[in-house]
Specification:
disordered N terminus
């Protein structure tokens, strides 16, 4: 029996299929560059790099699903990128900014935050493989990108007041540890991936997004504070809804 010839180039990939992984690697570069800026004392640019990494993190998964190029390697890259960009980089940036002032205690706070981030990612990955996570209207605990932004809020607040350190290093250390604990907590937080908009409201939503993007470019730090405050309010609303649901079930 004659063997069927192998299809020529069957193992080749279109370059476009590599785009999601390239976006993930660029996000890693952004996180690493944020650490470099912090080491040089350019703290505003350090935080900007974490924001860039967050935007790219939101794009790579959507690109992979849109282009049907989801792979196991891509999933591993995304998880490792999240740990660097939203666990390691924010912790080091905060340490270089003010936590170094309290020595070992500040470093322990950074370690606690990074460890909480990696534990949160490990839990998410395990539940996704078991088919019990990664879907639905809620996350369990604060997602790592949101945790990174919240952890950096003491810095962002200081940027709004002429780069003056507004909080003692000890208070910032306690705050960072609390944010880390929220990441590994069991409390539900909103997942905004499944939000749907009616066709009639689509123009208003697009206008709002454009205006929000303009605000980020013109007033980046004040806008970040407002968005963080809105996110904290959404967490509180999610807890109230959970308690109401438990009461109805009980």
């Amino acid at each position: 029996m004659a063997r069927r010839p192998r299809e020529e180039g069957s193992r080749d990939l279109p370059l476009a299929k590599l785009l999601p992984n390239l976006v993930t690697l660029i996000a890693v570069c952004a996180g690493m560059t944020g650490i470099r800026f912090a080491f040089q004392g350019e703290y505003e640019w350090a935080v900007r790099m974490i924001l860039v990494a967050g935007v790219l993190d939101g794009l790579d998964g959507r690109l992979a699903r849109l282009m049907r190029s989801q792979t196991l390697i891509g999933a591993e890259l995304d998880s490792l990128s999240d740990f660097l960009n939203f666990g390691v980089a924010p912790a080091l940036i905060l340490y270089f900014w003010s936590l170094y002032e309290i020595g070992g205690v500040g470093w322990m706070a950074c370690l606690a935050f990074a460890l909480c981030c990696v534990l949160r990612l490990a839990r998410f990955n395990a539940r996704s493989k078991e088919g019990t996570g990664g879907a639905g209207d809620y996350f369990t605990g604060i997602p790592s990108p949101a945790g990174a932004i919240l952890a950096l809020m003491p810095m962002v607040l200081s940027f709004n007041f002429g780069n003056e350190v507004l909080f003692p290093a000890t208070m910032s250390a306690i705050y960072v540890v609390l944010v880390g604990l929220l990441m590994i907590s069991q409390m539900p937080t909103y997942s905004f991936k499944n939000i749907r908009v009616s066709r009639n409201n689509a123009p208003f939503v697009m206008l709002g997004v454009v205006l929000l993007g303009s605000a980020v470019l013109i007033y980046p730090w004040a806008t970040m504070v407002a968005l963080a405050a809105a996110y904290v309010v959404s967490i509180a609303i999610a807890q109230v809804q959970r308690l109401g649901k438990k009461r109805k079930e009980g």
